[in-house]
Amino acid sequence: MDDPKISNQAELLNLLHQECNLFYCLAALNTTYYHLFNSILLSSTSYLLLLCRMCLVRMRQEGREGKYMCRYIVHSMWEDVEQRSKIMGIDAFHRKESMKAMTETFYAAIFGYDEGILSDDCVLAAALWRNLFNRQCEDPRQLELMVEYVRKQMQFIDALDGEDLLLTGEVKWRPLVEENAQSILKVATPTYNVAGL
Questions:
Q1: Where are the transmembrane segments (predicted)?
Q2: Is residue 2 part of a domain?
């Protein structure tokens, strides 16, 4: 990423860190998230882990800057978890134990989602059933809907321009249900970040 507006490495790293925080916040607050709660009643933590993983898969394709963003997206996620647990009044000992358990859950989910994204729909469905639905999905249509959602969202994210993605820190999230599935490939022109890039 060679931008004449960015004069040195420290400035670039600072900008990428800001974009990672924005990227994470937009993932955590996206409107599809609320629609999913109303229609499928998913766990907010499980869904956020899925969104983060989809973003991380895409960011890894962007070389050194992408790997840097991956680290800081995950860092932003753990900072958010830490802050929320403090607000909830969880003492330091229990917070540390909970963070350890959540870290294990996160890495297990990453492994399952990676295997599912790279494999067929049956493997992805199994990963979603274990990690997103917490092995409690009574309606197979909901699981099928989520498999379709992950596939179309990954296809959409993969179609985004890498440099625009790094500069804006923003991913558009597809609606859970779309009338015109062909719209998946139509990527909107981005609006650049707060630094004016």
A1: 36-56
A2: no
Asked if residue 50 belongs to a domain, the reply is yes
pLDDT in tens, the chain (197 residues): 444 444 555 654 554 555 555 555 555 555 455 555 555 555 666 777 788 888 888 888 999 888 888 888 888 888 877 887 888 888 889 888 888 888 898 899 999 999 999 999 999 999 999 998 888 888 899 899 999 999 999 998 899 888 888 777 777 778 777 777 654 444 455 555 555 55
Tally of domains in the chain: 1
The answer to whether residue 195 is domain-embedded is no
Q: Give the contacts of 56 (CB within 8 A, at least 6 positions apart).
A: 70, 73, 74, 110
- Please give the model's pTM, rounded to 2 decimal places: 0.71
